[in-house]
Amino acid sequence: MYCCRPETSKRWLLSVLLLSTVLIFGGLPTSAVWAVPDKIYLARALYLAEKGRYLEAKEIWDQFAEAGDAGAQLYLGGLYEQGKGVQRDPVQAFAWYKKSADQGNRIAQLKLAEMYLSGNGTEQDYEQAFRWNKRAAEAGLPAALNSLGNLYLDGLGTEKDVEKAVEYFREASNRDDLSGMFNLGYSYENGVGVSQDTEAAIRLYRSAALQGSMPATVNLGRMYESGDLVPTDYAKAREWYEKASEQNYAVGQLNLALLILQGLGGEKNPREAARLMRLAADQGNARAQTELAHLYVIGEGVESDSGRALELFHLAAEQGYAEAIYSIGRLYKDGRGVAQDAQKAIAYFNRAADLDYSEAYLQLARMYYFGKGIDADRDRALSHFQRAASEGIADAQFAVGVFYFNGEKVAQDKATAAKWYRSAADQGHELAQFTLGTMYLAGEGVEKDGLKGVAWIGIAAAQGLDRAIDAQGKIWPKLSNADKAKVEFVIETCRGKQFRDC
């Protein structure tokens, strides 16, 4: 599942066309009161912009902007920032926003704050971003109230103050700013700056969603999907994701696709899942590009095509998406869609590892351990196994256990080995479960306990591990009926937990 975090206000602030309604009909201040003919000219400019005739609109705005009209200056800033009818020029955009902001235009003040915050068109300056954002907020602009909350939340240009951030989110929400409503809901959901209140979070998300907030729509779906704070309800999750998907919202399309792929909350349909992923991927969503690439690798919902998978992985990798970078390494390691190349595989695994992608450490460890395509290096292998194990990767935890059990590259320590095996076993790793069972039977690294040993071996056997099945077959006839009942109870309880945390 893919979810949404605190956001800035809707990027309608970037849109010349949507700004028109606010400025002309919303009563926002300009440098002077327009005369009726002036209003007609400016309305004409807005009409031209709506039709995509930006150069003609610019001619009108140029005249008014040079005469000192703050609204026209704001519009020119928007044209230069977006490159509409003119070459994109953030420096020019900043200059026009500054002229408008200096006259008190609160939207221009917020735009100026955004440019200082991002370093777009000017040198990045968090203190100036905070200063201009605060001026716009004090003028009552709902979007600025929300943005000011984000600055307090992150401690940018001011001291971090999550309680004050929530105050501004609340004020923005009370003025019907959808991003403020969303952020307040997020605060209640996660207990950030307020006591956790699931009902309040859902109420705010729902209110924002019904007014068109796609992040809120997705977060409602995510809450019902995860079941962390409300009972899991895949059908409801699917409904909310469908609403977001219908609005061509990439995250909604992806999350819906993942449910459909698994058949959760409705019919399983890999082909439809692939179609939705493609829609999200075409919008540049790196996670969707990666998930779709995986489908091309295995041929689920699409024809198997490693070449197409590689293209999609590269698109996501160019955005710095760690899983995609790792997956390219896997293709080079296995020679799927590309010539097998251990050095390229290692290069991609290292890139993914630099982004803290745990599975990359595991792959590096295996390559160095077995020396496939490279010189074996057990010291380096152990280091990578340990890093992956610390990140909770079960295969790596089992491998570290083997190092300690055998005393390879470390002092032999069977008790430590048992701890690592247990960590892997608790994640359902059948070989770790079996090995732990044999250690209990022999009393190696743990206190000898025959029933625990048989139980762990039985758990591994229930998952289909051949050596565990063979061992269980030899041990089982030797048990009393009472002991068999105890072991069967443990195994069935573990089965109910999907063989995890047994």
From TrEMBL:
Pfam families: Sel1 (PF08238). InterPro entries: Sel1-like, Sel1_AlgK, TPR-like_helical_dom_sf. SUPFAM superfamilies: HCP-like. It comes from the Bacteria. This is Sel1 repeat family protein. The lineage of its organism: Bacteria, Pseudomonadati, Pseudomonadota, Alphaproteobacteria, Rhodospirillales.
